[in-house]
Amino acid sequence: MTDKTVPVVTRAGHLYEGTANSGGAHRASGVSPQHTPATRIWFGRVSNEPGFRSLPHHHGEAETGGYVLAGSGRIYFGDGYREWLDMTAGDFVFVPPFMPHVEANMSTTEELVWLTARTPDNIVVNLPDVPDDTLDGFRRA
Known about the structure:
mainly beta; Jelly Rolls; five-stranded antiparallel sheet; three-stranded antiparallel sheet; 10 strands; globular
């Protein structure tokens, strides 16, 4: 027998759920060091229920790439989270290392689903929460 690394498939419904979350942002990985031979990537599904948002957070040294699979999202960032970018299904986003941000589902009826890749791992540093009314345009379901 050899120590050869081979492809690993994480089947639908069997994502790794023991990953860090940020309030209303739920993360589950399909590829990560926690359950595959991967050593330098976290790739998974992030979802926000209708009218929910993440806590303010950043991803430490990790670079993050995201793809909006379904729904309408907004990323708040900058001083007091007063800047934002809107995204809809089919859009990609890059979030730099150490950038505090809030991920929000801008719909009160539809789920927001992202596919997210992060290197080197799913680093999540949650920050103090902010009131909803400081996030321009956000409303809960």
